[in-house]
Amino acid sequence: MSYNEAETRYHLIDPVLRTKGYDDPQRIKLETPAPVEPTGPKGRRRQGPGRTDYLLCVQVGDMPKPLPVAVLEAKKESEVH
Predict the structure, then answer these.
(1) DSSP string of 24-67?
(2) In whole angstroms, what is the distance from residue 5 CA to residue 26 CA?
(3) Residue 80: which residues within 8 A CB-CB, separation 6 or more?
(4) Are residues 4 and 73 in contact, defined by beta-carbon separation less than 8 angstroms?
(5) CB-CB contact of 5 with 75 (8 Å)
(6) How many domains does the chain have?
(7) What pLDDT, in 10s, does the model give residues 9-67?
(8) Can you tell me the distance from the alpha carbon of 57 to that of 78, in angstroms, rounded to the nearest whole number?
(9) pTM beyond 0.85, yes or no
C-alpha cells in the first residue's frame, strides 16, 4: 500500500515529531500565511495560495514568539525519489 500525503504525515512524520518534543502547538505550526520554499541558507515565501505542511519552531531566550527553524513538506510515496 502506498501512502498519500495525509497518510505520510500521520503515519511517518507526526510520530517522529512527537518523540522529539514537537507536540506543543507553540513549537509546530501546520499552517503558514504563504508557502515557504527553502532556498539555500534562507527561505522565501511564494506568491499565491498554498500552505506549508510543517513549520518547526523553538523558543529562544525571552523572545515574544518561538523562532521558526525548519520547514517540512510531506509528499505521497509515489513522489519520493
Answers:
(1) STTTEES--SS-EEEETTEEEEPSSS---SEEEEE--TT-SSPE
(2) 23
(3) none
(4) no
(5) yes
(6) 1
(7) 888 888 998 898 887 766 766 655 566 666 666 677 667 666 678 888 888 899 888 88
(8) 29
(9) no
Minimal CA–CA distance to 80: which of 10, 14, 12? 12
Residue 71 in any domain: the answer is: yes
Whether 81 maps to a domain, the answer reads no
DSSP single-letter state for residue 68: E
For residue 11, tell me if it sits in a domain. yes
Task: Fill in the DSSP letter of residue 78.
Answer: G
Q: Is residue 13 part of a domain?
A: yes
Q: In 10 A of CB 43, how many CB atoms?
A: 15
Cell 510531506 belongs to which residue? 74
- Which domain, by its residues, includes 65? 5-76
